[in-house]
């Protein structure tokens, strides 16, 4: 059997995946059915950018294992609801052992919900806003290798999006956090060359109707 390139792994099912996708059982369905597939649902987009903020300083696996708890705590990330959370909700969330009890990240999520409401009013949807920052097809190599991804956790597009979000009042949205969001929500396809999901995700992106 041919040796796999750096950044790939072959699962017990014989499928070749990005190495991180086979590193824990919780990652398998997330890697195969979620990560990189294009998303236009506003609540999912809001959820992901907030959870990426919570992940700062932690592993995504930690957040993924608590994701259902986060959804219950933050009204399924309906930002029109979260925008109205007050001090009592903050204290409730700080005391919730099922999530990451970081007061700054909790208040950031509420602040960002208010900013998301403003974005929806301006652009019609969060999806219409975020997809404006999809990099053009010729802006990046067609297939990113593991070394490139590891060495460059930001891109010019993620820097632009980060700056624009901060200008609009969002917090915990640095360019690395934003790039992880863009990768997960399908604004780029960073399943690396050789991963079985790479072509599936690219086909989904080709058929995806860009919002706005």
TrEMBL record:
Q: Output the InterPro entries linked to this UniProt entry.
A: Adenine_glyco (IPR005019), DNA-3mA_glycosylase (IPR052891), DNA_glycosylase (IPR011257)
Would I find Isomerase among this entry's keywords? Answer: no
Which residues, if any, are the signal sequence?
none
Binding, Zn(2+)? 18, 31, 191, 195
Q: Which GO terms describe its biological process?
A: base-excision repair
Among the Pfam families in the record, one is Adenine_glyco
| MF terms (GO), sorted A to Z | DNA-3-methyladenine glycosylase activity; metal ion binding
Give UniProt keywords alphabetically.
Metal-binding, Zinc
Q: Which SUPFAM superfamilies match?
A: DNA-glycosylase
Protein name as catalogued: DNA-3-methyladenine glycosylase I
> Species name for this entry?
Tianweitania sediminis
């Amino acid at each position: 059997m041919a040796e796999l390139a750096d950044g790939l792994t072959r699962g017990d099912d014989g499928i070749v995946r990005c190495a991180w996708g086979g590193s824990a059982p919780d990652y398998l369905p997330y890697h195969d059915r979620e990560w990189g597939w294009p998303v236009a649902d506003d609540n999912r987009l809001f959820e992901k950018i907030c959870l990426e903020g919570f992940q700062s300083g932690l592993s995504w696996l930690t957040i993924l294992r608590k994701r259902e708890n986060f959804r219950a705590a933050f009204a399924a990330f309906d930002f029109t609801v979260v925008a109205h959370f007050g001090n009592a909700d903050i204290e409730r969330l700080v005391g919730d052992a099922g999530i990451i009890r970081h007061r700054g990240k909790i208040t950031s999520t509420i602040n960002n919900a208010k900013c998301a409401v403003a974005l929806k009013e301006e652009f019609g949807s969060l999806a219409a806003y975020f997809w404006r920052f999809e990099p053009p097809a010729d802006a990046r190599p067609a297939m990113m290798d593991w070394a490139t991804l590891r060495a460059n956790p930001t891109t010019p597009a993620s820097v632009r999006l980060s700056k624009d979000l901060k200008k609009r009042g969002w917090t915990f949205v640095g360019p690395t956090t934003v790039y992880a969001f863009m990768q997960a929500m399908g604004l780029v396809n960073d399943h690396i060359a050789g991963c079985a999901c790479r072509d599936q995700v690219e086909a989904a992106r080709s058929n995806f109707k860009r919002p706005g």
